[in-house]
Design brief:
- It comes from Anaerosporomusa subterranea.
- By secondary structure, the chain is α/β, with parallel strands linked by helices.
- It is built from six helices and 17 strands.
- Strands 1, 2, 3, 4, 5, 6 and 17 form a seven-stranded mixed β-sheet that branches.
- It is elongated, with a radius of gyration of 21 Å.
Length: 303
């Protein structure tokens, strides 16, 4: 029986276990990796203390700090979270393990949203990618498309424009990105913006060959883009399905109050999996510290 179970090893989860360990809580971190979404990020310029750092570099610093404390880490996929009759919690993993804890912090983050068009699933890993930082260098000198309208999509397009021959930035909706990032698009002559277009199909036999799009609401007016890669950046889905006991909003985000508390006593949440309005590394880390401190306070009253 652990004092605290932390689910998720991104900035929120790793910060939470550091704070918990400093409070001498017997803590277990269950995660598929250490770093989460930040591992896909190349350029970070707004994390305090670093004028510039890459995602993997920053997460390596987080991991180094976690390793300084006696925290148990299990690299497993959580599939079920249950609350027991005695008030404790049980976590079940895809690997067949079960772990018990007196309190839980959900810090499971989000995962990429798919386009759900023909050819996407079949060509994933063969030209269809959800991580420009991971796979971008493989497309040096080629033509690629980036799909999306937020910061991640525009940053991916800029990153790819530095290595690819041609980049098409396809957006269905108006940009919802920082003005400074939108302005940077103009610096790349090999980057073409295609606005108000939807995805129709991705075609290829052994790898991506064509990406078919059409103007919003006019599927009969298809346009064929000859590309070797399609980078999907259309948002994220909360990793919260395993926690069906907790109250979530229409997007699947876990609803929390200002003290990281959910509607279940002893169950807290932090980071991108919550209904917090902004998804930022520094906010996730702050959420993780707050959740750990509030969980510690909760456990004090259980003893």
């Amino acid at each position: 029986m652990f004092d605290l179970l932390v689910i998720g090893g991104g900035p929120a989860g790793m910060t939470a276990v550091v704070y918990a360990a400093r409070k001498k809580l017997n803590t277990l971190l269950v995660t598929q990796d250490l770093g989460g979404q930040v591992l896909w990020t190349r350029d970070i310029q707004n994390y305090m203390g670093y004028q510039f750092v890459t995602g993997p570099e920053l997460m390596a610093k987080f991991e180094e700090q976690v390793r300084m404390f006696p925290v148990t880490v299990k690299y497993e996929d959580v599939v079920k979270l249950e609350k027991m009759s005695d008030g404790s919690f049980t976590v079940r993993t895809a690997e067949g393990a079960e772990y018990q804890g007196k309190a839980v912090i959900l810090a499971s983050g989000k995962r990429p949203r798919r386009l759900n068009v023909p050819g996407e699933t079949e060509l994933t890993g063969m030209g269809v990618s959800y991580c420009a930082t991971c796979d971008g260098p493989l497309f040096a000198g080629m033509s690629v498309a980036v799909v999306g309208s937020g910061n991640s999509a525009l940053q991916a397009a800029i990153e790819l424009a530095n290595v690819a021959k041609q980049v098409y930035l396809v957006s269905r909706d108006p940009y919802i990105a920082d003005p400074i990032i939108i302005e940077m698009l103009e610096k790349y002559p090999n980057l073409e913006e295609i606005k108000e277009h939807e995805s129709k199909e991705i075609i290829g036999k052994y790898s991506v060959e064509q990406y078919i799009i059409h103007p919003n609401g006019r599927p009969e007016q298809s346009r064929e883009l000859s590309v070797q890669g399609v980078f999907v950046e259309v948002g994220l889905i909360p990793n919260s399905e395993f926690a069906d006991l907790v109250e979530r909003n229409e997007f699947g985000e876990v609803i929390v109050d200002c003290r990281a508390r959910t509607n279940i006593e002893g169950l807290f949440a932090a980071g991108d999996v919550t209904d917090g309005p902004d998804k930022q590394i520094v906010i996730a880390a702050g959420d993780g510290s707050k959740a750990a401190l509030v969980a510690y306070e909760y456990l004090l009253h259980q003893r």
